[in-house]
Write a structure and sequence with these properties.
Blueprint: H1 2-11, H2 16-27, H3 39-53, H4 60-67, H5 71-83, E1 87-89, E2 92-94, H6 96-115
Antiparallel strand pairs: 1-2
Helix pairs in contact: 3-4, 3-6
């Protein structure tokens, strides 16, 4: 790469700054930044996927795939939701508390989007 830059500088075929910029941009790998979800957002995704599927028709694996979480993180969040009595796992269902959570979460999100 350095040899190519030197060659192009000597032969004046392209402007130097253009060559360096092109080479740096083509070889530099850009990192895609991914925003980390909060615990509330993850809970919302889990509960929402169960609700969208309907009564007792979704498996734990499908919910995990929908939420895009690793197995250990997903199982930990699922256990927390069950501990908080928001879901039952056999069969996978929502409780009234989870439905209230979804309503309040959506209300809160609308408020934040409106004012911030």
């Amino acid at each position: 790469m350095i040899q190519l830059i030197s060659y192009l500088k000597i032969n004046k075929t392209w402007p130097t700054d253009m060559v360096e910029s092109f080479i740096m941009n083509s070889t530099h790998e850009t990192k895609r930044t991914i925003r980390r979800r909060t615990k509330l957002e993850i809970y919302h995704d889990i509960i929402n996927s169960i609700m969208d599927a309907g009564y007792g028709t979704i498996t734990v694996t499908k919910v995990q795939l929908y939420t895009k979480l690793s197995y250990d993180k997903f199982s930990r969040h699922l256990a927390n939701l069950e501990e908080k009595k928001m879901i039952t796992t056999n069969p996978l269902q929502l409780t009234e508390k989870a439905r209230e959570f979804l309503n309040e979460y959506d209300r809160m999100k609308e408020f934040i989007d409106k004012w911030i």
